[in-house]
Amino acid sequence: MTTIGYEPVTPLGEDARLWPLTAHRGARGEVFVGGVGLTRVAKQCGTPTHVVDEADIRRRCHDYQRAFDGEVAYAGKAFLCRTMARWVQQEGLSLDVCSAGELAVARAAGFPAEQILLHGNAKTPQDLAAALAYRVSRIVLDSETEITRLAALVGRSPHGRRQQVLIRVTPGVDAHSHRAITTGTDDQKFGFSLASGAAEEAVARVLARPELDLVGLHCHIGSQVEQIEALERAAELMVELLARIRDTHGRTLSQLDLGGGHAVAYRDYDTGSDPAELAPRLSAAVANACATHRLPVPHLIVEPGRAISARAGVTLYRVISVKRTAAGRVFVAVDGGMSDNPRPALYGARYTIRLIGRPAPGPHQLTTVVGRHCEAGDVLAEDCLLPNDIHPGDLLAMLCTGAYHHAMSSNYNLVPRPPVIALSNGTARVLIRRETDADLLRRDVGGVF
Ligand code: LLP
Question: What is the pTM of this model?
Answer without folding.
Answer: 0.96
